[in-house]
Amino acid sequence: MPEVSVILPNFNHAKYLKSRIESILTQSFQDFELLIFDDASTDESLEVIKGFSDSPKIKLVESNQENSGSTFIQWSKGFEKADGKYIWIAESDDLADPRFLETHLNIFKENPKVGLSFSASSWIDENGEIIHQPEHENSFIKPGSELLKNELGKGTFIYNASSCVFKKELIPWEKLDQMMKYKYCGDWLFWIGFAEKTVFSRDSKRLNMFRRHNQNVSFKSETEGLQFSEGFQVLGYLLEKHEFTFTEKFKLLFHWTLKLHKSHSNNKRQFLAALPFLARWAYALSSVLVLLKLR
To answer: H helices within 54-170, ranges in order?
Structure first.
């Protein structure tokens, strides 16, 4: 049995796919299997994948006849066929430092209570040039219950799945059906499922390269307002299933209503209606603050 199962979901990323697969196969830690799931690509993706047909690391290549409409469906297929103790979802347009797997496997070895480990990222453009390096990504080890009240309550705290390695035994299978209905916020619900069970680790070394481009799923979903239409459903679940003090709840709702107020969405009232009544107060306060800043 391999120690790690690497799941590579792909749709029309032929342009980036060769360098992505190479960044997986050249990892310093080599005890892994690679499972590739192509979601009915219409570009040259399958030809690129065939170029690696002689690699003993590739356990499976599976191609859909029709596009599934959600990368999370591809994730789920990978989980079911993975034999590794650990899972790495390596999105097809991203890249990884050769030390990525080695670093995270060492973290699990040194900290047995950790169930999910992720690293800081450099954001890159179409040509692989660094365009952003978030300053807040310091190293920590924290129980998921603490993150639920703070960072994870504010959205997709782990904004790029490629930055993560997690224990397969902790996969929140009970959330997969709902997750697969989402196009954008399924990963947020997924990470909440881990936080309900385990300890998180973040390493400040920038071992993941998160690519941002116009065909990026998250880029398109943000412009469609899915961070609110889907995100407020996930936020509602979080507030319903976990105990928050009045102050904690108000802080989270204020964070989200401020983000909604600053957005260019045309459906602000509709999105706001999906939140608890307390959100109306938070939205009113956020409106005042935004007006004061404009003066």
So the answer is: 71-81, 100-110, 144-149
